[in-house]
């Protein structure tokens, strides 16, 4: 059997992030006291130290902020996947997510490339927020 990549393990801090993805929504934590968005999810607001939290649906649109290309398979499940790019996407609302792009080879990635979220179901509990080139920005 082929090795499979380990999946994220939800914690009390990020359970709602994963639950929203399972429902097909990208929701990000927002401080209920000062409205600062933050990601990854954590208990306390870094701006005002409030523990009051709400979850806000994002548009799913963003741009490539940065990326790095991996050539060595650092896990048995990656042997057939190299080279692959790990990408930091900056959402139009501000927060940044570490993710992968689908249907874009590492050589095609550019900083500032418009992207939009796609939901890739990995298990009953985990749906991964991956990104693809935005429809309006597709190159022929
Ligand atoms: Zn705050």
Structure description:
The protein is mainly beta. Helices cover 6% and strands 35% of the residues. The protein has one helix and eight strands, in the order H-E-E-E-E-E-E-E-E. It has one helix at 15-22, and strands spanning 27-31, 37-38, 53-57, 61-70, 84-91, 96-99, 114-121, 127-133. The protein has a five-stranded antiparallel sheet with strand order 6-5-4-7-8. The chain has a three-stranded antiparallel sheet with strand order 2-1-3, covered by helices on one side. The radius of gyration is 16 Å and the shape is globular. Residues 31, 33-34, 36, 45, 47-48, 50 line the site of zinc ion.
Topology:
Layout: H1 15-22, E1 27-31, E2 37-38, E3 53-57, E4 61-70, E5 84-91, E6 96-99, E7 114-121, E8 127-133
Antiparallel strand pairs: 1-2, 1-3, 4-5, 4-7, 5-6, 7-8
Zinc ion (ZN) is lined by residues 31, 33-34, 36, 45, 47-48, 50.
Helical proportion, percent range? under 10%
Bound molecules: zinc ion
Terminal Cα separation, in Å?
37 Å
Element pattern in H and E: HEEEEEEEE
pLDDT averaged over residues: 94
SS class = mainly beta
Quote the beta fraction: 35-45%
